[in-house]
Amino acid sequence: MGVVASSPDTDMILPPSDAEGVEGALSGLIALVQDDLTLCNQAIIDRMDSQVPLIPQLAAHIVAAGGKRLRPLLTLASARLCGFDTALAGGVPRHVHLAACVEFIHTATLLHDDVVDESRMRRGMASANAVFGNNASVLVGDFLFARAFQLMVEDGSLQVLAILSKAAATIAEGEVLQLATQNDLETPESRYLEVIEGKTASLFAAACQVGAVVAARPAEEEQALYDYGMSLGIAFQLTDDALDYAADQRKLGKTVGDDFREGKITLPVLAAFHAGDAEEKRFWQRTIGESDQTEDDLEEALRLIARHDTIGLTLERARIMAEKAKRALDIFPDTPLRRSLCAVADYTVWRAR
After folding, report:
1. Which of 31, 214, 268, 321 could form a disulfide with 235 if both were Cys (CB 3.0 to 4.6 A apart)?
2. pLDDT digits (tens, 9 = 90+) for 99-143
3. For every residue of 132-155, which 3-state class applies, written as one string?
4. What is the pLDDT of residue 257?
């Protein structure tokens, strides 16, 4: 089935009066789990160490490139939301090591993705593969995956191991599925959503779910946090896909139009293709379907995307998923942590403004 573009009022993604609160969402969440995050950052540094000097050098490069530590933050916050008591933990609390595990899985996938995509930038800096080469990036990514599984085993919970190992496998499946749909303009929207659920949202969901597991909360709360993370991750990736055609390069941290040049099938392109006339469809078939692009084609792609407001469509879909994420938390009491997690859901869309 085709994708039908609409023209939502993107200025109303959030009321203007909410902007300041949303922009401070991440800093607010960090403030609530600051002590845990400090321990998590130290655990990440400790576990990146190796007798092979290139491993910590390359790992430190991608860590230095920034990133908001959103996924490990979700693990820390979810555990706290569920009442996990660090005073009873002894030593480094479980949720801290699992948050580091989540970050290692994420970082490993970034290293591998940049090699597959032949990316030269990551968060405004030269990507690790651009600096150290493809071989080193792939192998250090493997090292970080191995470190993540060491942390899972040390945790000792088969349930945690099942959740995080399944997420790691699902991420790989999502990336392979994206490769299979590349350049295919007949990809249905349902398949596109399957890709982003796999490659992005599955780790968000697992990061949140294990917070409930370590706190020994009932299945209803575990499911609620899984649902929150899944919806949040979908909103996050939808917004990223919109930003690739709408953002300032310095803000995005990568070259704008990378998805276009790589022939990736994302909602802004799918919607523009299905909404276009015969001439426009021929343009998309040549540039995306056949990877036959000239220097001026990106500008034309941006014009067609703007003509059909498919950025607005994509951000509206992201807003709907962010609202779904917030509703998933209704099972929990109204606390600063719950409000902060809801603000993070809004932030995922608002960062496109």
Report:
1. 321
2. 999 999 999 999 998 898 888 777 667 888 888 999 999 999 999
3. HCHHHHHHHHHHHHHHHHHHHHHH
4. 87
Reported pTM: 0.90
**276: CB partners within 8 A, 6+ apart:** 283, 284, 304, 308
Residue 294: burial class (beta carbons within 10 Å; 0-12, 13-18, 19+): exposed
Q: How confident is the model at residue 247 (pLDDT cuts 50, 70, 90)?
A: low
Instruction: Tell me the CATH number of domain 22-351, given options 3.90.1150.10, 3.90.320.10, 1.10.600.10, 3.40.1260.20.
Output: 1.10.600.10
- Kindly list the domain boundaries of the chain, sorted by start residue: 22-351
The helix/strand/coil state of 121 is: strand
DSSP assignment of 268-289: HHHHHHHHS-HHHHHHHIIIII
pLDDT number for residue 240: 93
N-to-C CA span, the chain: 30
> How many other CB atoms are found less than 10 A from the CB of residue 54?
13
**Alpha helix segments (H runs only) across the chain:** 19-23, 25-32, 34-48, 54-64, 70-81, 94-117, 128-132, 134-155, 158-181, 189-196, 202-214, 219-243, 249-252, 258-261, 267-275, 278-284, 297-307, 310-328, 336-350
Q: For residue 171, give the nearest of 196, 208, 154, 188 by alpha carbon.
A: 196
**DSSP at 246:** T
